[in-house]
Amino acid sequence: MQPTAATPAPDEEYGSTFKDLERQHRTYLPKEQYAVIRLDGRAFRTYTRGLNKPYDEQFMADMDAAARAVATALHGVRLTYVQSDEISVIITAWDPTRDPDEARRGQLMFGGAVQKLITIAASVCSVEFNRRRPDGGTALFDARAFSLDSPANVRDYLSWRQADARRNTLSMLARTKFSAKQLNALGTREQHELLLGIGVDPADLPVGFTQGRILIPGTEPGTTTFTHERTHETQTVTYERSVLNLSDAPDFRTAGADLIPEPPRTR
């Protein structure tokens, strides 16, 4: 018997059922808070085995490029922090360059849908990183997302990830000078003292390696030249184009508060 107008076809019933099931597991980040997406290389201990130690400049450049691709693909990115094989993206629904009333009407990309944000971020990161390293084997990145409710918490989060960067860099430097047996069960302080004892100062390492790098959105002047179709006159105009400025990260324990935009004030 053919379904009547009042009786949905089986495929319509299935579609409704499965969409309801999808919605049950759909979560959203609140637009009033700072959205954080953290990407991490999967099984990168194996992937990075053949890299230069204690740090590899090409690997760092490729991570920066992957971070830039993610920050470009996502809307509302205010700060991107890169260290080791990890990228943290800070996003706000509000645009700090806009009028407060207008800024408050801003929305997160995809309405803050977590599944879409993390899958897009991980996909873009993996594609760009692998594009730059065709001979390095296939690299995969996972992603997670959560919210922070204040600029102070954002800075604390960045300080936490930066502390991880310092531990990792110290450990990598120590492994280039001492055997695994010599370093067994030693903490960060003991490793630091061992290195100083042989005249190696971890403070001499590049800041971008020990503290990580940041990408901050900005603008720069640009020009474009075109020819009018009717008059055939050539004209050059100037404009402001969006850019992502790369620099060494500050020490987030004592600096960097100015890099985190305040939420728009309420009346």
Description:
There is one protein chain. The chain has 267 residues and is an alpha+beta fold. It has a single domain, classed as tRNA(His) guanylyltransferase (Thg1) (Alpha-Beta Plaits, 2-Layer Sandwich). The chain has helices at 10-24, 44-47, 57-73, 100-104, 114-132, 151-175, 180-183, 188-197, 207-210, and strands at 34-41, 77-83, 86-91, 141-148, 213-227, 234-248. It has a six-stranded antiparallel sheet, with helices on both faces. β5 (213-227) and β6 (234-248) form a beta hairpin. The longest helix has 25 residues, at 151-175.
List the helices and strands and how they pair.
Blueprint (H helix, E strand, L loop, with lengths): L9 H15 L9 E8 L2 H4 L9 H17 L3 E7 L2 E6 L8 H5 L9 H19 L8 E8 L2 H25 L4 H4 L4 H10 L9 H4 L2 E15 L6 E15 L19
Antiparallel strand pairs: 1-3, 1-4, 2-3, 2-5, 5-6
Helix pairs in contact: 3-5, 6-8
* SS summary, helix count: 9
Percent in helix: 25-40%
CATH superfamily: tRNA(His) guanylyltransferase (Thg1)
The span between the termini is 62 Å
Q: What structural class do helix, strand and pairing data support? A: alpha+beta
Outline, from the CA principal axes?
A: globular
Strand order of the largest sheet: 4-1-3-2-5-6
Percent in strands: 15-25%
Contiguous runs where pLDDT drops below 50 for at least 5 residues: none
The H/E string reads HEHHEEHHEHHHHEE
What would the CATH topology be?
Answer: Alpha-Beta Plaits
Would you summarize the structure shown here?
This protein has helices spanning 10-24, 44-47, 57-73, 100-104, 114-132, 151-175, 180-183, 188-197, 207-210; strands at 34-41, 77-83, 86-91, 141-148, 213-227, 234-248.
